Model the fold of this input.
Amino acid sequence: MLANSLVELDRQHLIHPLSSFRGHEQGGLRVLRSAKGATLTDSEGNQLLDGFAGLWCVNAGYGHESVVEAAAEQMRRLPYATGYFDMGSEPAIRLAAELAERAPGDLDHVYFTLGGSDAVDSTIRFIRYYNHARGMPQKDQFISLSQGFHGSSTAGAGLTALPGFHAGFGVPFGWQHKISSHYVYRNPVGPDPEAIIAASVAELRAKVEELGAERVAAFYAEPIQGSGGVLVPPPGWMKAMAKVCREMDILFVADEVITAFGRTGPLFACEDEDIVPDFITVAKGLTSGYAPLGAVLMADHVYQVIAEGAGEALIGHGYTYSGHPVSAAVALAVLRLYEGGLLENGRRAGERLMAGLHGLADHPLVGDVRGRGMLAAIELVTDKGAKTPLPAAAEASRRIFDRAYRNGLIVRAFGSGAIGFAPPLCCTLDEIDEMVARTRRVLDETLDDPDVGAAMTGA
Ligand SMILES: Cc1ncc(COP(=O)(O)O)c(C=O)c1O
Done:
């Protein structure tokens, strides 16, 4: 089929995630055709370095035959097995065991979902059930962070703190509360790590006191806030927040949908901080995007309360595709790749990426460079001293994405003017250098933009 007829069919029938329906009808789309390693090819034959690993998920890179084989073999043998009625399949069981073995502390129990949104949604249900089970049903208030992203389910979208996910959808609900992000570059207390940690701790305590500790069920945080603009907390921040939660009998949920599976270096970013949350949610890198799969990792002490509380009763939470054998077989094959050298390669490439991006700090538009491992961002400003964001007229999200694309690079172009990077862990150092070089070209072209130029001279 010709690409242009695909464009027309798409316009008429396919609703795209996080899109302007009208904008998409007018703008059309680019059809991606194939990929290998860290390089995508579109339907016009353009080759693109994927600096964003699909949607920060193809951590292993494209085209691994071992993963394709694992999926094909499982499809031939047993394409589906329900987990209902006390049945199961070998890949789901093995994957649960392997995740539990590698996860920090007593995160020994795994519930599989189809992705990150339903993993977050499942934690909300489990946490409510947990508090009912221990006779505290009034403990039903949830706290998360500004700029946080916890997916797009009806309940999870209210933990998410990005306005576009709220407007028109009737969320957040009254039981969903926010405290400020650590956002180091723009934190009102300044950049000092200790001051930022102290401010976040104080705000969490104050919020809990306002709601009443006996009412607060859980606090959610991403080890690095991804969709909010790749906001990296100061070292020790997650640990300090986890400590407050423990003290106040609040469950701590680390949403590692982006950060797990080598994105920041180790398999779980919580290892960077040596913390053991009560829940970890994962998805994306779990299968490297080769098949849909997410998971909730649940601490043993939570599991035991739920199990005891329910007794013989069924715990009414289940999906047809929980523990899908093909997705689980894919995840096991991907885990072998991570542990067979990809995590190591990702660490080396991540150092190169951070060094390269820091090398862009001299560019007149670059106000901030931040990241850890293979998860990074640069934030563009028109005045470095005043940290003035790009003007709205510069349409950062669209123009920067398009410019990068024309330069053979895919990045995440945030509306705020930040540019996000999450390359596959398989990248060679040369590919990383090339991504940085292409980014500099994008910055130069943006500097030539009349809107941006006018904002810089104050004209
Ligand atoms: C931290 C976090 N949680 C949850 C989600 C939702 O995951 P999914 O898109 O797989 O539903 C995302 C997606 O980007 C995420 O970044």
Q: What stands out?
A: The CA atoms of residues 241 and 247 lie 10 Å apart. The chain has two domains: 31-64+341-457, 81-323. The mean pLDDT is 97. The longest strand covers residues 375-383.
